[in-house]
Amino acid sequence: MDEDEITAAAAGVDDRIARRLRQRREALGLGEAEAAARIGITRAKLVRIESGRSHPTTVLLGRICTALGLTMTSVMSPDDPAAASDTAPEDAAAPGGSTVLRRIDQPVWHDPGSGYSRRILSPSGTGSPLEIVEIEFPPYADVTYGPTGAFGTTQHLVVLDGALTVTVGGRTHHLDAGDCLHMCLAGGGTVHNPGPAPCRYMVVLERGLAIRPAADRSAG
């Protein structure tokens, strides 16, 4: 892609996010004021986001998705999964079925706050409970995620290049290339790039797992 095509693709993802957030709110029967109160922003701010006139940061987008029962991947994925893959999603779920999402067709979203980029690697519409994303984190950037509720997101994070510091559950983990961290973000957490070079990492997420207290997990 040339620079104009990249810019157009990014704008397409932003437009898709705005439209899907509005559609989801309306499907839940929530008015703008009620939804804004759930999220913790003003009605005017929500209207600007849903109209595409304001682009939320990853932290705010995460809060909106949590309030509306969405995942960030679901609001960014292509409108027509079959058009962006080599196999129709209904065929992928059949015995022997498969789906390929080519890199050129993978949606990429840029966080206006931290400057990080989020690339969706996993094809949508397959029925899989897993989501796979690739993140490129700028030098010295950090993002703090809020709680996601009792049914949170468990994930494996694998550092591909660079270094990363992740704080979750009161513990801080320093990760280098090749390191893999399993964690649950039900209570929130912070991701930080401590170095002068970008960090690239992959995340495999599984939504909707019930989070048991630490005491229960150690006893089991």
From TrEMBL:
Region of interest (Disordered), ranges: 79-100
Domain HTH cro/C1-type, chain residue ranges per copy: 21-75
Keyword entries, A-Z: DNA-binding
InterPro entries xref list: Cro/C1-type_HTH, Lambda_DNA-bd_dom_sf, RmlC-like_jellyroll, RmlC_Cupin_sf, TransReg_Diox_bact_type
Composition bias type Low complexity, residue spans: 79-95
Superkingdom of the organism of origin: Bacteria
Protein name per Swiss-Prot or TrEMBL: Transcriptional regulator, XRE family with cupin sensor
Annotated organism of origin: Caenispirillum bisanense
